[in-house]
Structure formats: C-alpha cells, structure tokens
Automatic annotation (TrEMBL):
InterPro entries: K_uptake_TrkA, NAD(P)-bd_dom_sf, RCK_C, RCK_C_sf, RCK_N, Trk_Ktr_HKT_K-transport. GO terms for molecular function: potassium ion transmembrane transporter activity. GO terms for cellular component: plasma membrane. The keyword Nuclease does not apply. The keyword Membrane does not apply. This is Trk system potassium uptake protein TrkA. PANTHER family: POTASSIUM CHANNEL PROTEIN 2-RELATED-RELATED (PTHR43833), TRK SYSTEM POTASSIUM UPTAKE PROTEIN TRKA (PTHR43833:SF5).
Length: 454
C-alpha cells in the first residue's frame, strides 16, 4: 500500500516504524530537514522536506497514486487542510490528527464535511484507556472488543500469588474458573507466549485473559487482586489528557483533583471542569501531595509533560499508598527498563494512536473473509490481539475448530455471537457474523484466513 505521512513528530515516527515493518511503501513529509533525515537514515522510507499543505509537495510525494494520507503535524488546521488538498489531488483515504477539545466536539461534522476517513485524537484516546483502568483497577490494562462487550484484561502476577508455579493444565480445576481463557503471557519484557497446557506461571508474568466482567471480578478475588472501582483520583499535570480524563471520571461520579503548575491553564480547567478541584502548584511538592491526602487516594495518574517526573511520582505514590497508579510515558526507547519498575499501569499515547491507525490500514484490504474491527499490540509488537468480523463466505466458518489447521503461536480467544461471549472449545465453530478475537505471536495478519497453515 502506498502511504504518505505528513509530520515527523513523536506520533509520525511511531507510525513510520510500525507501518514500514508491514511492508508498505511510505513517504514522509516534514518542513524540518533534521526530522526527515533522522527517519530516512534508520527506516526504509522516502523523505521529502517541505510543507505538507503544498500541492506541489504532495504531488512530489505521489499523492495521485497514494492509497492513504495520514496528517499528524502539530497543527490541527494544517492537518485538516492537508487532507482536503490530498482528496482534491488524488483518490486516497485520509486520516487527520485533531487535538483541540473544541474541534473534538465537532469531529463528526468535520469528518463528514472534509471527507475524512478517520479522525484520531491521541490525548482523548489515551484518556479513555486510563479511564477504563480506573473503572477496573485489578487490571493494569483493559482492551475492549465487540464494541465494549468483551474485555481483554492484563494483570501482573505477584510473588505470593496462588498462580505461581501452577501449570495451565490445572488452572481451571484449581481455581474453578471455567469461563476464563488465558490468552498471552509476557515474561521479562522479552517474549510473549501463547501458552499450552504445560506452561507454568511465574511471579512478574504479565497475563492477559478474556472474560466477562463478573467472571473476571470473581477470578481476581480468588487470586487476591480484587479492587473496587476508584472513588477519587488525583491527577498530576493539567494537559489535554488530564482534561479529557477528568471529564470522563467526573461523568462517572469519581471525585477528581488536578494539580497543575501553570496559573493560566488552571483558570482554563476551572472554567471547563467546574465539578473538579483544580490546584495551582507543583505536583512534585511532597507537602502539597500530603495536604491532598495522597496516602488515602484511590487513584493517581502521573500525566505531566516530563517522563522523569511521572516515573518518580508514581514510584513515590506506590510507596506510600495503595492507590491505583497510571503513568504516562512519551518516550518508548527504554520500555524494557520502564516495565520493570513499579509504575502501575503504563500509558504510551503515541503507541495507542499508532494501534488505531494500523487497525484502519489493515481493514483497507477489503477481505472477502473478514474485516479487522480492533487491534492491540503487546510488548512492543511481539504479539497482537485482533478482532475480526466474519463474512458469509469466510474460509474458516462452519468448521469445528479442532478440524482447522491453525498456525503455531495462534489462539482463538473468544467468539461473540448474538450478545453471548463464547470461550471456544474444539467442538465450536465460527459462524458468519461472529466477532472473533485472535491472538498471534511472531507474525501479523490482516485477514482471519491467515491463521490457517498454508
């Protein structure tokens, strides 16, 4: 697929790295020569120094034959204009990054009037991910499928967990949880395992399970990880993610306090979020945190602009309280080190954004078998969990799963049919219209038939 990416900032670079690994032909455009050179020197892409709004620049990038243009510059207006010119110049699909809360309120109108295929708001998307974790704090990450009806829950095994040393073959009999399916195990931030019956759980493993909410609550209670939904939250930093998160939490009835050092930003937040408590101060001030009873907080989100501050704040809060902590990290170069720290749930906004766009790119294949409905990457892309909506003539339909020749390192996690969640057995069949969750490790797919051996 021919893809043009306008903007070589954090999100643009993450997109280039992810999409280039999937064998797309990519051209990047940015007005900063050093940004373009940094990408073309490390990734096999073509770079153009110029203004992405310029028709001449877009023509040079091959807009007339492009399949997709993604505008992720720092300016919402530039992204919108770039997409409009691209639509006029060629016949490609367009995706724009829109961050302004005012525009976000009008995104449906903008998408329709500007002919956009997709609008992505990284800050809103990250805030939604954090809100899900605060709603279900037993998990360190919550991914949703089937329009929110099915959840993939990730949790970390503690050193005293009853799971330590337990073989997967004895999992259901020991814990009496037949409606829980173990999908993947991330171990030592180096590998993601799709386990078989001989697999043995160990401390510090990151386990992902598929379950209905009530079954998951019962399971977490049995392994000593039961936590109630947070009742109050302190947010360090008053940026866009904090704004969207506070808005969501307040709507859910969760008392929310934001600590922001910039006076002007505090005034904006006070006007826009009248039900929130806005404090003008330094979130790294221990006395201020103590005055706000951080020791008794149910939830804490470190969302300042500095990764170092966020990491230190979460480590400090985890040391003095039992709060559910969320840590925002922008840089992804040291994930193997960061994942070893006690930071609670870690949010990488640019990675979340890239996942949404990659899902759309794969769905453009217009397969006869299935559509990609959702996609989540695990451990820097070492594994993926995807949702497919099966079509009438899909090659995998109406065949018992035990008779399908499924590739190694592949697991059919869940089938959602007629408002029912099915944890599949060998006798179950996938049917047209089903939403099916698939976990893969070591390879990428864009069509469900690709889970079958050649």
């Amino acid at each position: 697929m021919n893809i043009i990416i306008v903007g070589c900032g954090k999100v643009g670079c993450t997109l280039v790295e992810a999409l280039s690994s999937e064998n797309h032909d990519i051209v990047v455009i940015d007005s900063r020569p050093e940004k373009v050179s940094a990408l073309t020197d490390t990734v096999d892409v073509m770079g153009i120094v110029g203004n992405g709004v310029s028709h001449t620049t877009l023509k040079q990038a091959g807009i007339e034959t492009a399949d997709l243009l993604i505008a992720v510059t720092g300016s919402d207006e530039e992204n919108l204009l770039c997409c409009v010119i691209a639509k006029k110049s060629g016949h490609c699909q367009t995706i724009a990054r829109i961050r302004n809360p005012i525009y976000n309120e009008e995104k449906d109108f903008l998408q329709k009037e500007f002919g956009l295929s997709m609008i992505i708001n990284p800050e809103l998307t990250a805030a939604n991910e954090i809100a899900k974790v605060f709603q279900f704090p037993s998990a360190i990450r919550v991914d949703t499928f089937a329009k929110g009806r099915v959840e993939l829950l990730h949790f970390k095994i503690g050193s005293n967990s009853p799971l330590c040393g337990l073989k997967l073959s004895k999992f259901h009999a020991t814990l009496h949880c037949n409606d829980i399916l173990v999908c993947t195990i991330a171990r030592n931030s180096e590998e993601v395992i799709i386990p078989n019956g001989d697999f043995e759980f160990a401390a510090n493993d990151i386990v992902s399970i598929v379950a209905k909410r009530r079954d998951a609550i019962d399971f977490f209670r049995k392994i000593g990880l039961e936590k109630n939904r947070v009742s109050n939250t302190i947010i360090a930093g008053g940026g866009k993610i904090s704004y969207y998160l506070a808005k969501s939490l307040l709507m859910s009835g969760i008392k929310t306090t934001i600590i922001e050092i910039n006076q002007q930003r505090c005034e904006f937040l006070s006007e826009q979020l009248p039900k929130a408590t806005i404090l003008c101060g330094d979130a790294t001030d221990k006395e201020l945190l103590s005055e706000e009873c951080i020791e008794k907080a149910a939830g804490f989100a470190a969302l300042t602009d500095l990764d170092e501050e966020n990491i230190l704040l979460s480590l400090y809060v985890n040391g003095i309280s039992s709060a559910k902590t969320v840590t925002k990290v922008n840089r992804i170069n040291f994930t193997s080190v960061i994942n070893k720290l006690d930071l609670g749930s870690i949010i990488y906004p640019r990675v979340i954004t890239a996942e949404y766009i990659i899902k759309y790119v794969r769905s453009m294949n217009n397969s006869l078998n299935s559509n990609v409905e959702a996609l989540y990457k695990l451990e820097d892309g070492k594994a993926e969990v995807l949702e497919f909506l099966l079509k009438e003539n899909s090659a995998v339909c109406n065949i018992p799963l035990q008779n399908l020749k499924i590739r190694k390192n592949t697991l059919i996690c869940c089938i959602y049919r007629n408002h029912q969640v099915i944890v599949p057995s060998g006798q179950d069949c996938m049917m047209p219209g089903d939403s099916v969750m698939i976990a893969t490790s070591g390879y990428n797919i864009s069509d469900i038939k690709e889970i079958l051996e050649d």
